[in-house]
Design brief:
Elements (H helix, E strand, L loop, with lengths): L1 H14 L9 H31 L7 H7 L2 H27 L3 H28 L1 H7 L4 H14 L3 H16 L3 H25 L3 H24 L17 H35 L2 H37 L3 H28 L1 H8 L3 H14 L5 H14 L3 H28 L1 H28 L2 H11 L1
């Protein structure tokens, strides 16, 4: 009996080592966001480094880079399913932790693990069967298809590793181990940086070498994250009895994760439409330019994405613990940081477009046409912060319907039709690049102000009600 009581006393003490309801809200968010941002930056290197090396290949001109760019929708679709389960499970996991329900939290973690494994298997099979028609649908020409096929046929082999690494790493961060989560990504990315030149140049494998280096690196990262989540250091672990799929939990995960899935899924749709339209109005050159612009956008979006990701477990935990004043402080802090950063990033793009493009390619044609395209594409980049702030708040507090709506609204309702219509109204390829800033302004502001009036302002009444109960 004494032994039983001792165990019950010790467990909560350990659990509170990552209690987000204590200390400065901004410091808790930064403590989560900094290593998460670095981890995401390093994660990007898996693909960014590939593009940089491929963009500087001496043979093929801009075609190899264009070919790799054509695979983005497939890679984005993989990320969409990862987000469906990962971002769907993490807020539920954080809320359960905030309530002290460790059993439910571990069941959520186990179910996310199973969903990632099963979905990765089906993605690989379907992608291999329909690979050729899919790539041509995405805007490939006969020349660019050769490089796109060479890259994606190897990249797909690492689907399960990619999904497990990204989908489960957020559960490490949500337990208060952001540095460990950062190391998960750094190990694989550093390995990728080392292997890329060896496979691409030393082994003379070209784009196939870039894909092979990525798969090996992702495998190492997946092994690392699984070892942690099944080891002694993790507070909440992946356990055999929890990997059995529970329909009720899956429904909750899918409901909340659908927002992230739609955001990534509509990104995939927009990429397909962009590539196809650019191929029609400008050819392979402009598909290559869009590849560069997408790469730059991914890098520049990282800090605000990292702040948003760092805020989610903190907001979710405090919401579960009914600390509504801290939820409000967290939303305000996240919004201010995001807006300030995106304004500065926008200024950098305006002042130094040529130098930014040269990082990704030495092709003179892309450089010549890419500067004006970059100015248009990144116009009003600051509005991205409003979208992130609103979306993060909805997701962190479990408001699935609102998160889903605004994910769908910006991409499917605004970007998709504009990408098709603006070129037809005499704007050509310029219309494709202009669709992005228009959607950022309309979608971002709509999402943010809806969150402000439906969530942020109501936290005062919720906190007053909670204080009255005490």
């Amino acid at each position: 009996m004494l032994i039983f009581i001792e165990k019950k006393v010790r467990k909560p003490v350990r659990f509170l080592t990552s209690d987000f309801s204590k200390g400065s809200v901004s410091r808790n968010i930064i403590a989560q966001a900094l290593p998460l941002t670095l981890a995401q930056l390093v994660q990007l290197l898996y693909n960014i480094v590939d593009r940089i090396y491929i963009g500087h290949l001496r043979t093929g001109g801009s075609i190899p880079l264009t070919g790799v760019g054509l695979t983005f929708p497939i890679i984005t679709l993989i990320a969409a399913f990862t987000s469906l389960f990962g971002t769907g499970g993490t807020p539920l996991f954080s809320i359960a932790r905030g309530k002290g329900d460790t059993q439910r939290a571990e069941k959520i973690l186990g179910n996310v693990f199973s969903l990632l494994c099963v979905s990765s298997f089906f993605i690989i099979i379907i992608s291999y069967i329909f690979k050729k028609p899919i790539l041509y649908l995405f805007g490939a020409g006969d020349a660019s298809y050769v490089y796109a096929n060479a890259y994606i046929k190897i990249y797909l082999l690492g689907t399960v590793f990619s999904m497990l690494t990204t989908g489960l790493n957020s559960f490490i961060n949500a337990q208060g181990f952001p540095k460990t989560g950062m190391m998960t990504i750094i190990i694989g990315a550093v390995l990728n940086i080392i292997l890329d030149p060896i496979f691409i140049f030393a082994f003379n494998m070209g784009v196939e070498g870039a894909a092979a280096a990525t798969v090996i690196s992702q495998a190492v990262s997946a092994i690392w994250v699984l070892r942690f989540l099944t080891g002694k250091k993790a507070e909440l672990k992946i356990k055999r009895e929890n990997v059995i799929i529970v329909p009720k939990i899956v429904k909750e995960i899918l409901s909340l994760g659908l927002s992230g899935f739609i955001m990534q899924g509509t990104n995939c749709l927009v990429q397909v439409v962009c590539n196809s339209t650019l191929q029609l109005y400008g050819g392979d050159l402009y598909v290559g330019i869009m590849t560069v612009l997408n790469s730059v956008r991914e890098v520049l979006s990282l800090p605000v994405s990292g702040i948003s990701g760092g805020a989610q477990p903190v907001l979710g935990y405090n919401y579960g613990a009914k600390k509504y004043d801290r939820v409000k402080n967290g939303i305000r802090f996240t919004s201010i940081i995001g807006i300030t950063y995106t304004a500065l990033a926008w200024l950098v793009v305006i002042l130094f477009p040529e130098y930014i493009i040269k990082i990704f390619t030495s092709d003179a044609d892309i450089l010549s046409a890419g500067i004006s395209a970059m100015h248009i594409y990144f116009f009003g980049f600051i509005f991205m912060a409003f979208q992130f702030a609103g979306q993060t708040s909805f997701q962190a507090l479990g408001l699935a319907k609102q998160a889903i709506f605004f994910s769908l609204f910006r991409k499917a309702v605004i970007v998709f039709p504009l990408t098709i219509l603006l070129p037809k109204f005499g704007m050509g390829v310029t219309g494709v690049f202009a669709a992005e800033p228009i959607s950022n302004a309309i979608g971002g502001l709509s999402c943010f102000f809806t969150m402000y009036f439906t969530v942020y302002r109501k936290t005062n009444s919720l906190q007053t009600s909670e204080n009255n109960k005490k």
